[in-house]
Amino acid sequence: xxxxxxxxxxxxxxxxxxxxxxxxxxxxxxxxxxxxxxxxxxxxxxxxxxxxxxxxxxxxxxxxxxxxxxxxxxxxxxxxxxxxxxxxxxxxxxxxxxxxxxxxxxxxxxxxxxxxxxxxxxxxxxxxxxxxxxxxxxxxxxxxx
Length: 145
Hints:
Layout (H helix, E strand, L loop, with lengths): L6 H11 L12 H30 L1 H14 L10 H4 L1 H13 L15 E3 L2 E3 L9 H10 L1
Antiparallel strand pairs: 1-2
Helix pairs in contact: 2-3, 2-5
């Protein structure tokens, strides 16, 4: 495989290599569903992250001013930021990381299915049952403080 590769390319490649495997997870039934889930999850995460950042910037305007000044100083107003600028803006990166750490960006994880009967924390989870991880219940203690 040469050039740019993405989830769909890799899945199609794996399907062609595993076409004789009876229980392969790489098949035309799961590919469209997974691609749609990945797209939706990625879009939702970006949107929620930006909402939380805006909330914190409104609540703490002193950070808004400091971030704006650092961006103007490092990047200016006439060009797009580049990945290398991240190293030049530790305060901005710290703000982003703290938003991700402190906020409940994603309430629930994608649906999962165990490939065999499993036990987690004393609970039995049968093979092929749908499982959802509730991140919000784990993170809510941080937000309430």
